[in-house]
Write a structure and sequence with these properties.
Elements: H1 3-7, H2 17-37, H3 44-51, H4 55-61, H5 65-81, H6 95-112, H7 114-123, H8 128-151, H9 160-180, H10 187-203
Helix pairs in contact: 2-3, 2-5, 5-6, 5-8, 6-9, 6-10, 8-9, 9-10
């Protein structure tokens, strides 16, 4: 583990329900503090106060606020990858349903708390280790999607790795941009349009 990775590594994984609840309270409080005061002013003292725990308790779980941001980001990315890690036999599901699940999850992630998402986008590039974590997740998600495309009988594109990169990147950028627009497209309409576009591309038509 590099010094940067150690800086954002969580210190303690709770084994008891009470400890897990404390950790969850810290993360929930951090999300509120970061979106209310901004990342620079969102100190660990403010987070501890919001979480109703001592600063010493907070430091038992996270060494600094970068580690808290990294954990929040990991959860966000993990939710976005959920449709690709269900473990189901993808060959038994229509391609359009699989694409729709990806699109729906991406939209939900962006619209649940746009202020927190904006924080991720603005602050992550400033922390090298956090950015490394993002890149690792994006690479892993792309590879899982590529493997899905290789196995699915409806996929007609020749280069599945290129297709996986194009789809995952395009989906992330488009949903982020359109969700932040002042005259944003209704979620259901956006889901339908993106699903139709991506499905047609993957079928090779």
């Amino acid at each position: 583990m590099t010094p940067q990775q150690r800086r954002i590594a969580a210190r303690r994984r709770p084994r008891q329900v009470r400890a897990e609840l404390t950790r969850e309270r810290i993360l929930t409080a951090a999300a509120h503090v970061f979106t209310t005061y901004g990342y620079a002013a969102g100190t660990t003292n403010r987070i501890a106060e919001e979480a109703r725990c001592s600063i010493g308790s907070l430091y038992q779980y996270f060494p600094n606020k970068d580690a808290i941001l990294a954990e929040l980001l990991t959860r966000h990315l993990g939710q976005g990858a959920a449709p690709l890690t269900s473990g189901e036999d993808v060959g038994d599901q229509p391609l359009e349903e699989l694409v729709r699940a990806m699109v729906r999850t991406a939209i939900a992630n962006h619209r649940d708390d746009p202020r927190l998402l904006r924080l991720f986008m603005e602050e992550a590039p400033r922390a090298g280790a956090v950015m490394t974590k993002i890149e690792a997740y994006q690479r892993g998600r792309m590879l899982r999607f590529r493997d899905l495309l290789v196995r699915h009988p409806e996929v007609g594109v020749e280069d599945t790795e290129a297709a996986a990169q194009i789809v995952t990147t395009t989906l992330e950028l488009m949903v982020h941009a359109l969700s932040a627009a002042p005259d944003r497209i209704p979620a259901r309409r956006l889901e339908n349009e993106l699903t139709t576009m991506i499905t047609a591309y993957l079928r090779g038509r």
